[in-house]
Design a protein that fits this description.
15 helices; binds 4'-deoxy-4'-aminopyridoxal-5'-phosphate; seven-stranded mixed sheet; three-stranded mixed sheet
Amino acid sequence: MSSFEIQIREELESLSADGLLRTVDSIETGCFSQITIDGQTFLNFCSNNYLALNGHPYIANAMKKAIDLWGTSCSASRLIVGSIKLFEEAEERLAGFKRKEAALIFPSGYQANVSVIATLASSEDNIFSDQLNHASIIDGCKLSRAKLSIYRHRDVNNLEDLLKNSKSRRKIIVTDGVFSMDGDIAPLKEISELADRYDAVVIVDDAHATGVLGKDGKGTLELFDLQQKKNIMVLGTGGKALGVGGAFFCCPDYIKQYLINKSRGFIYTTATVPAIPAGLMASLDVIVNEPDRRKRLHELSNYFHQRLKAEGFMTSKTPSHILPLIIGDNQKVIDMALILRKNGIYVKPIRFPTVPKGTERIRFSLTSHHTKEDVDKVIDIIKSYILLR
Ligand code: PMP
């Protein structure tokens, strides 16, 4: 065995010994609210299919039509081969949805965050990043080589102290809109005020809020009535509530032009498939036309949150469609996930490094297809597990 292979194998063994080895389950159905693995059917509490739009016939038809009309591939980067009109049309619609001047589609949210942040900041600049921001934001910050100031989770006083002392050229505040592993919401009103006061711009990663929060599902900026703010830019992803895939960064037009010229994750990648912009536009139609999906999701989130609190379980302070059950121990969270799975509930133990050590958890993500009975079943299983210990 080469020393390379020995080292890699040793690392895998050490992950396994620490109970941190990750494996990928093979699902025999689509990723819907019920999934089948090894012939067993589970209620799926792991997907970000919040509005249950995955497979929606209207969206599926739009995507199929796009394949027929525009083909299965874009064949090269948009700068090299040109951009099929579908992208421009979708970008106009997406920008309008977020009430921004322009939008730029990326193949994924991870790629968009890494690429946008690394393009807009460099070594002369200062990025202010919430402690619990998504990995793609963290990676974008690292790649940018900007000075990185990490503020305590949702702590605007701490953020202000850091802003006050910064002498850097550009100040960029980056935050998740809804935090992916905690389900809580960034204090965007206060962050926006600080940005105005300290001449900073804000990037909000609305991966988990797009389609879900705000009166019309436009995300956290709509929720806080901040859509018109020129110094706030926002990322939306298409693979979660929108039920499609891809991602879009919404910003002033001059930033879009800058990204087209400088953003390596846009320039040096093949454009995503034509079905994606078509699906994104169809999904926006459904989000507008079927507000009941959002309503049901919020009712269920409140119900689940109330039940977790009433049973004395540790969860987030406020309800959202992402609800953590904090266990705080690696082995116990693995056991809890196993018990739930044995009882037909598909969840994953969320461990370090996805969350800090000592905050290991089960992350429940709800969809508008779940029911109160599903939630009751989950609570009963958790209670019986706690009683057994
Ligand atoms: N931001 C956040 C907050 C996320 O949770 C995720 C995905 N888990 C992403 C960005 C990346 O999006 P995508 O899955 O489209 O790459």
